[in-house]
């Protein structure tokens, strides 16, 4: 059964590392959520089933929405889809928005999972990132989530930062584990073009992050997360057994989902669709009753490459049988031949399921291994 993603394209301020689509001009938030409901009506038939197993409010900053705006979106979802019993319903919450009233409102509405954008528990990191919250707000948000007894939550952390020492990274992890999150994500700093940090480095105003620092952080992360009983089920994601993010896992397993809102992506099982990363272009088209996405039809070898890339990032790995069935014997033979080096070097191992996944050493060079397995005609 499919998932629904809602992109709320507003933020208080621009974080210095972020290349997601958002606007800091928020005067038309209500108009935007109304357009998003309209888009649900225009596009719901793209999903073969109207029964949703996951709903994900992402962004941007969905916790910026007022109660009224969120209710408009929620009622739109209920008008156009059915939410399965036990569906995972996640909302991304920025720490500065967390209040007891707001968390109770989310819980009563039906949201059963919060994703908290902590990033770091050190003020100097948050200031350097240009985050809108401070360390006290990050801890307060997590305290409230525990107090309210939110059914599930996850938090985001970032490592590989230029000024984050190894000891400081350990301390960040210790602070996160103190809340016993069932799930957390740890992202290595990746410098995206058109971000402030990318420009600062190009202008010599900031030192580029060191690869050896990121690798040392990665080793610390693996050791400390394993000691706490987390499974590294996707390269950037860690969960207690079985508490995997269902929305994201469905995406990694190429399940269909509908993405609503400016810059949202969708996949119906065959075709990928992308909405424009421009709020006004998006709203004007939807308000005139027209969809506004571009389609991306991947050819066979691109679909194989995408499968390998995504599957190798997960603990479930990739399957030669799946490759043979979905892409043909040429691709299966190609993968089998290319993967042998990595099996010999113990960067990859065979699982009892018949799949092949990366070992701890393989995860450090995951991008390289994927590239080696790619099929380039
Ligand atoms: S709050 Fe999130 S989406 Fe908004 S600028 Fe910061 S990282 Fe990007």
CATH class of the largest domain: Alpha Beta
Distance between the termini: 34 Å
Tell me the CATH topology of the largest domain: pyruvate-formate lyase- activating enzyme
Q: Name the helix and strand elements from N-terminus to C-terminus, one letter apiece.
A: EHEHEHEHHEHEHHEEHEEEHEHEHHEEHH
Return the structural class: alpha/beta
CATH architecture level-2 label of the largest domain? Alpha-Beta Horseshoe
The Rg value, from CA coordinates, equals 21 Å
Beta percentage is: 15-25%
Question: Which molecules are bound besides the chains?
Answer: iron/sulfur cluster
Instruction: Calculate the mean pLDDT score and round it.
Output: 96
Largest sheet: 9 strands, mixed
Could you give the order of strands across the largest sheet?
A: 7-8-6-5-4-3-2-1-9
Tally of separate helices: 15
Summarize the amount of helix as a percent range: 40-55%
State the shape.
Answer: globular
Report on this model:
This protein has 15 helices and 15 strands. The protein has 377 residues and is of the alpha/beta class. The protein folds into two domains: 250 residues, pyruvate-formate lyase- activating enzyme (Alpha-Beta Horseshoe), CATH 3.80.30; 74 residues, Arc Repressor Mutant, subunit A (Orthogonal Bundle), CATH 1.10.10. The chain has a nine-stranded mixed beta sheet, with helices on both faces. The radius of gyration is 21 Å and the shape is globular. It starts with a strand and ends with a helix. The relative contact order is 0.12. Iron/sulfur cluster binds next to loops.
């Amino acid at each position: 059964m499919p998932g629904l993603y809602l992109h709320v394209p507003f933020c208080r301020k621009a974080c210095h590392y972020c290349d997601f689509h958002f606007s800091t001009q928020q005067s038309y938030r209500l108009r935007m959520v109304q357009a998003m409901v309209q888009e649900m009506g225009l596009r719901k038939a793209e999903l073969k089933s109207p029964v949703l197993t996951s709903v994900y409010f992402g962004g941007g900053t969905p916790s910026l929405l007022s109660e009224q705006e969120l209710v408009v979106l929620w009622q739109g979802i209920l008008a156009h889809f059915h939410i399965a019993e036990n569906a995972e319903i996640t909302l991304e919450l920025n720490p500065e928005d967390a209040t007891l009233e707001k968390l109770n409102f989310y819980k009563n509405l039906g949201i059963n999972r919060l994703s908290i954008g902590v990033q770091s528990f050190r003020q100097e990191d948050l200031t350097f990132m240009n985050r809108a919250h401070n360390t006290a707000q990050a801890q307060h948000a997590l305290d409230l989530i525990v107090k309210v007894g939110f059914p599930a939550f996850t938090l985001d952390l970032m490592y590989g930062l230029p000024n984050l020492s190894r000891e400081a990274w350990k301390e960040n992890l210790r602070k996160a584990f103190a809340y016993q999150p069932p799930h957390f994500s740890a992202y290595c700093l990746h410098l995206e073009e058109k971000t402030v940090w990318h420009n600062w480095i190009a202008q010599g105003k900031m030192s580029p992050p060191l690869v050896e620092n990121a690798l040392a952080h990665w080793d610390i992360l693996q050791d400390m997360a394993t000691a706490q009983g987390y499974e590294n089920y996707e390269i950037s994601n860690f969960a207690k057994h079985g508490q995997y993010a269902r929305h994201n896992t469905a995406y990694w397993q190429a399940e269909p989902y509908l993405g609503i809102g400016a810059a949202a992506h969708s996949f119906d099982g065959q075709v990928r669709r992308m909405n424009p990363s421009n709020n006004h272009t998006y709203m004007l088209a939807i308000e005139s009753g027209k969809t506004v996405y571009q389609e991306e039809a991947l050819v066979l070898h691109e679909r194989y490459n995408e499968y390998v890339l995504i599957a190798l990032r997960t603990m479930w790995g990739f399957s030669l049988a799946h490759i043979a069935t979905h892409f043909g014997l040429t691709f299966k033979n190609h993968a089998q031949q290319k993967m042998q080096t990595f099996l010999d070097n113990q960067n990859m191992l065979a699982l009892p399921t018949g799949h092949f996944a990366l070992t701890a050493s393989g995860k450090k060079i995951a991008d390289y291994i994927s590239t080696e397995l790619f099929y380039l005609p």
